[in-house]
Design a protein that fits this description.
This protein is α+β, with helices and mostly antiparallel strands. It contains 7 helices and 10 strands. Strands 1, 2, 3, 4, 5, 6, 7, 8, 9 and 10 form a 10-stranded mixed β-sheet that branches. Helix 1 (40-52) packs across helix 2 (85-94) and helix 3 packs across helix 4 (208-220). The longest helix has 13 residues, at 40-52. The chain starts with 15 loop residues before the first strand and ends in a 6-residue tail after the last helix. 43% of the residues are buried.
Length: 314
C-alpha cells in the first residue's frame, strides 16, 4: 500500500467497515470506554458520531491499558449513515484530539470482527538505555540508566515461545478464564541507545508483556541469569516475578488477519523505529490450531476455549 493514496469522496460506504487507528495513550485510562475517565474509545466514538450525525459503536482488536500507545489498532463498526471514505477519515480526524488519528477505513464483509477474527497481535516495547533521562522520547519509551545485556535478554525470552501457561506474567486483577496463550515470537534487539522487545501472540493476559519486559530487564542488568524466564514460566506464580515495566514504552503495532480481508498494509510502528523498514503483516504466522480455527481450515487438534477467546492484549 502506498503511503500517499487519494481517499474516495464520491462513493458512500455502507454496511460493516474496518478502520485503522493510531493513538498516544498518555492522557487516557486505556482503550475501553469508562464513565469516570477519558478513554480512546470514548473520544473516537464521539468524533465519529459527529460525522454520522448519530451515535456510533466501535469494536477493537484488543484493549490497551492506561498509558499504552497504538500505531495500528483495528476497529470495526456498522455504518449508521452512508459517508464516503474521505468523510470518515478526514471528518473523524477533524473532530479528534491531536493524540488520536484515523489512518484509513475500508468496507469489509458483514461477518468481519476486529476482535474474534484476529490471528495475532504484535507489540513493540521500547527502552531507552542511556545514563541520562530522555526528553523527546519520555512519553513513548521507558528509560533504563543501567547497561543492558541484550543478547542475554533475547536468549532468556526464547523460553516463552509456543503454547504455554503464562500465570507468572499475568496481573493480579486479570479476568481471563485461561492463562494459556500461544506466543508466536519474541525478539530483543539493540539499535544504538534503543532496546526493543518485539513480541507477537494470539492474545495477551493483562499486563503480560509489561511483566515479561520487567523480568527481561532484570536479566539484562545481570540481576538474574538467562534461565530466569524459564524458571518463572514453570513456577506459574506471579508473586515470584519482577516489577511490571511502565506502560509508556509499550506500543500496539499490528493486528493480523487473514489476507482475504485485504486490510491496508502500513509501515510497522512506532515511527521511532521506522528505520527498521518492516511493514505490517510481513511475519509468517505459526502453524497452530488457533490460526487454523480462525481461518476455518480443518485441524486434527482441539482448540482450547481460551484460544478461541481474544483475550486482552496489554
Amino acid at each position: 500500500m502506498p503511503l500517499f493514496e487519494s481517499l474516495d469522496e464520491k462513493h458512500p460506504l455502507t454496511g460493516r467497515l474496518a478502520m485503522g487507528v493510531e493513538y498516544d495513550g498518555s492522557q487516557y485510562c486505556g482503550w475501553q470506554r469508562l464513565k469516570h475517565a477519558p478513554s480512546v474509545q470514548g473520544a473516537l466514538e464521539k468524533a465519529m458520531a459527529r460525522v454520522a450525525n448519530t451515535p456510533v459503536t466501535i469494536h477493537c482488536s484488543g484493549r490497551t491499558d492506561s498509558g499504552v500507545h497504538a500505531t495500528r489498532q483495528i476497529v470495526h463498526f456498522d455504518a449508521p449513515a452512508p459517508r464516503s471514505e474521505k468523510a470518515w477519515v478526514f471528518g473523524t480526524n477533524a473532530n479528534l484530539p491531536r493524540d488520536i488519528a484515523v489512518h484509513w477505513v475500508k468496507a469489509v464483509p458483514d461477518d468481519f470482527h476486529a476482535r474474534f477474527l484476529a490471528l495475532g497481535r504484535r507489540y513493540r516495547y521500547v527502552i531507552l538505555n542511556q545514563p541520562s533521562r530522555p526528553v523527546l522520547e519520555r512519553a513513548n519509551a521507558t528509560w533504563c540508566r543501567d547497561p543492558l545485556d541484550v543478547p542475554a535478554m533475547h536468549d532468556a525470552a526464547q523460553a516463552l515461545v509456543g503454547e504455554n501457561d503464562f500465570s507468572s506474567f499475568r496481573a493480579a486483577g486479570c479476568q481471563s478464564k485461561t492463562t494459556q496463550r500461544h506466543l508466536h515470537f519474541i525478539e530483543v534487539h539493540r539499535h544504538g541507545a534503543l532496546v526493543v522487545v518485539d513480541v507477537q501472540a494470539n492474545a495477551f493476559l493483562h499486563h503480560m508483556i509489561r511483566n515479561i519486559v520487567g523480568a527481561l530487564i532484570a536479566v539484562g542488568r545481570g540481576e538474574q541469569g538467562r534461565d530466569y524466564l524459564a524458571r518463572l514460566l514453570a513456577l506459574k506464580d506471579r508473586t515470584q516475578g519482577s516489577a511490571t515495566a511502565p506502560g509508556c514504552g509499550l506500543h500496539f503495532v499490528d493486528s493480523v488477519y487473514d489476507d482475504v480481508y485485504e486490510l491496508p498494509r502500513e509501515p510497522l510502528g512506532p515511527n521511532l523505529l521506522a528505520f527498521l523498514g518492516e511493514w505490517t503483516g510481513e511475519r509468517e504466522l505459526p502453524d497452530c490450531p488457533l490460526v487454523d480455527f480462525r481461518r476455518s481450515r480443518p485441524t486434527h487438534a482441539s482448540v482450547p476455549p481460551g484460544f478461541i477467546e481474544a483475550g486482552k492484549p496489554r
